[in-house]
Amino acid sequence: METLLQKAASKPLALTHRELAELLAWPDAKALFGAAYEVKAREVGRTVSFRGLVEFGNICRKDCYYCGIRRSNGKVRRYRLDADEILREAEWTFKAGYGSLVLQSGELADEASVAFVEDVLRRIHAIAGDELGVTLSLGEQTEETYRRWREAGAHRYLLRIETSSPALYEKLHPADHSWETRRECLRALRRCGYLVGTGVMAGLPGQTIDDLASDIEFFAAEDVDMIGMGPYIPHPDTPLGKGVRWTPEDAKKRLELGLRMIAVTRLHLHDVNIAAATALQALDHEGREKGLLAGANVIMPNVTEKSRRADYQLYAGKPCLDENASVCRTCLERRIAAAGETINWNGRGDPPHKRLR
Ligand code: SAH
Ligand code: SF4
């Protein structure tokens, strides 16, 4: 048994589908997380990179069955920050030494929305130049749009495939949402010269350990640079989350599954960036630190203005709703030092993986 952990740690992409599934169910979680942490320390260092996360709007044309801000949820108060507000948050992020910024929102693809993002990107670039990494997480777009945003200053893009199983994807989305289109978008992003990130939700209804093993194989096959993964957390105002009984025991299990996915992904891919998603923290106040100790190396502190955070709830129990960005910064610094990790201040934190290409 022990040799499987050693085999995974010694060489990237060394695991078969069976072995990935075996590791995901590895009986000794502590040994699994420890082995993944060693690989992380060796490949990317005992450091954490920060991305300031700006959730700049919750208006979305999509209707994913699991998501709290889906188009059909009439209970959501819709908003979009204006360009000056986003700029202020970008500037704060830059000055706080986070080195990198993520702009995320619901999916909109009309020309006015595309041009709005383009303008914001140019203005951010005028303030911070190449010193501030800029990641977008704005869903499925045309290749032309991706190219425009790349030219305006974005250099990384996060688009989770959500699950690598087209059959499961179909059950989680309305008929006009397409898994193939999403995968095509990942390829278009690569053609446009982005560092590409994808990821999945762990613990989706109907998802098996085999599906999760296939997810990790998908990351390898698409040769992605970054992985943003988190546990699925039901939202009561969604078709998938409605009426779901959710106990502390469920939260514990979901957290562990999320951590196992991080660990096995690190053990298979070695040198990519892996984010400890905020959803981990929603399940356990030390969830993100646990993610770091299971092999993650990126954290995305929320820098969105406090008054807006409650309107951007993808899942139930979102943390830090009542804390402003500087309180979060201090709190995070303390927690990370306690976990024995150092912070990559002012670094863009591009993954070593990129250098191989
Ligand atoms: N609209 C963009 C970005 C915002 S959604 C997009 O979909 O790509 C960002 C991520 O939130 C999604 O990719 C999904 O994986 C995650 N998410 C949505 N609902 C969730 C839930 N109930 N639990 C956990 N993660 C969720
Ligand atoms: Fe919109 Fe993204 Fe939520 Fe889907 S997951 S409904 S695309 S915000």
Shape: globular
Uncertain runs are none
Bound compounds, each kind once, are: S-adenosyl-L-homocysteine, iron/sulfur cluster
Biggest sheet, open or closed, and with what strands and sense? 11 strands, parallel
By oligomeric state, this entry counts as single chain
Using the coordinates above, name the CATH class: Alpha Beta
Termini gap: 33 Å
State the CATH architecture.
Answer: Alpha-Beta Barrel
CA gyration radius, whole angstroms: 19 Å
CATH superfamily: Aldolase class I
Summary keywords:
357 residues, alpha/beta, TIM Barrel, eleven-stranded parallel β-sheet, 11 strands, 46% helix, 12% strand, binds S-adenosyl-L-homocysteine, binds iron/sulfur cluster
SSE layout:
Layout: H1 2-10, H2 17-24, H3 29-44, E1 47-50, E2 52-57, H4 83-95, E3 100-105, H5 111-128, E4 133-137, H6 143-151, E5 156-158, H7 166-172, H8 179-191, E6 195-198, E7 201-202, H9 209-221, E8 226-231, H10 248-269, E9 273-276, H11 278-283, H12 287-293, E10 298-299, H13 306-309, H14 325-338, E11 342-343, H15 353-356
The site of iron/sulfur cluster has 10 residues, from loops.
